[in-house]
Amino acid sequence: MAKIAKKYTVVVDTREKAAYTFKEFDNCSGMIRKKLDTGDYSIEGLENVVCIERKATVTEIANNITDTTHRFDREIQRMSFYEHKFIVCEFSIDDLIKFPEGSDLPISVRDKLKVGGKFLLKKLMEYQVYSNVHIIFCNNKENAFYFVASLMKRLSEKYS
Predict the structure, then answer these.
(1) Dihedral, CA atoms, 126, 157, 24, 145, nearest 10 degrees?
(2) CB within 8 A of 98, min separation 6: which ones?
(3) What is the pTM of this model?
(4) pLDDT in tens, 109-145
(5) Average pLDDT, stretch 17-22?
(6) Residue closest to 50 by CA, chosen among 16, 84, 14
(7) What is the arithmetic mean of pLDDT over 102-115?
(8) CA 90, 96, 99: angle at the middle one, nearest 5?
(9) Per-residue pLDDT for 2 more than 60?
């Protein structure tokens, strides 16, 4: 059941490139940039409760998943301690499954890849099942922004 939310401020990690812009609107007071230990977005005062990681392209998430340093796996482990954790994808599940077809990778690189979209889907579903991280496919950046903005409002209502 929805509550009337008090004003909230979106926190955007200082390392987030091409960040969404949250302006004062409705109950949102706008945004601040601050280093987040995990994720790209949160709500001021709920930084240990809300964690949203944004992925712009399938290539980006493929690089994260196949990184031999396992940095992304450690980030997923850190996310597992948050009450509300999401990976918001600015692409479709179809784009993921067809990877590397349609990606921004040069053809010469695509031919040498050892992983495809079905493997990436498997890994994302493992994150969802074993770490309870919600994977959201939004098809594009605009839809992803609207999803995150709506999610922030609902979460601020929950904790008002």
Answers:
(1) 20
(2) 117
(3) 0.93
(4) 887 888 899 999 999 999 999 999 999 999 999 999 9
(5) 96
(6) 84
(7) 84
(8) 125
(9) no
User: What is the torsion angle, in degrees rounded to the nearest 10, for the CA atoms of residue 160, residue 3, residue 44 and residue 88?
Assistant: 140
Confidence band of 106 (pLDDT split at 50, 70, 90): confident
Ranges of each domain in the chain: 8-158
What's the chain's length in residues?
160
Query: Which tokens in the block code for residue 74?
Result: 């450690």
From 3.90.950.20, 3.40.50.1950, 3.40.50.10130, 3.40.50.720, which CATH number describes the 8-158 domain? 3.40.50.10130
Q: What would the two tokens of residue 133 be?
A: 């991280």
Q: Return the structure tokens found at 58.
A: 């399938």
| CA–CA dist 97, 119 (Å, integer) | 8
Are 99 and 44 contacting, i.e. CB atoms less than 8 angstroms apart?
no
Sign of CA dihedral 67, 70, 74, 79: positive
Q: What is the pLDDT of residue 111?
A: 79
Q: How far apart are CA 26 and CA 5, in angstroms?
A: 10
